[in-house]
């Protein structure tokens, strides 16, 4: 059962909305191997595709302790960051699947308690590139393959 489109704003107006914890740190604590990462060790976001049950388990654990909002496992899922792992051509796949997994768990928990809707929010972290007018070397941004914007 998906919450009403304005349910998030309504929840914010009446109470504190609790977000989940750190997906990256939580998944890192699982001591996964390079094989679990699909050979792309260090790219937590790639676990969405290679170990979806681990991502599902993290989402579930956050909801079980009372989180209202799940962040998608997409902190590094931009073209710039995924290109560092040779995954720059899979940006859309990572983001769509991460949103689908989070929505699946949010809907499951909302169905258990329709008066407490659970929400999904996108997560996007920094690229790791530092813009600098004083030192152009800091502003070097690798070119990632173009990503179609049509969903």
Order of helices and strands: HHHHEHHE
CATH level-4 homologous superfamily: Homocysteine-binding-like domain
Strand residue content: under 5%
Helicity, in percent?
Answer: 25-40%
Question: Can you put this structure into words, describing what you see?
Answer:
The longest helix has 22 residues, at 91-112. The protein has one domain (17-125): Homocysteine-binding-like domain (TIM Barrel, Alpha-Beta Barrel). It has a two-stranded parallel ribbon. By secondary structure, the protein is mostly helical. It contains 6 helices and 2 strands; from the N terminus they run ααααβααβ. α4 runs parallel beside α6 (91-112). Helix content is 38%, strand content 4%. The protein starts with 6 loop residues before the first helix and ends in a 30-residue tail after the last strand. The chain has helices at 7-14, 23-28, 47-50, 52-64, 79-83, 91-112, and strands spanning 69-71, 119-121.
Compact description:
The protein is mostly helical and 151 residues long. Helices cover 38% and strands 4% of the residues.
Secondary structure layout:
Layout: H1 7-14, H2 23-28, H3 47-50, H4 52-64, E1 69-71, H5 79-83, H6 91-112, E2 119-121
Parallel strand pairs: 1-2
Question: What features would you highlight for this structure?
Answer:
single chain; 151 residues; mainly alpha; TIM Barrel; two-stranded parallel ribbon; 6 helices; 4% strand; globular
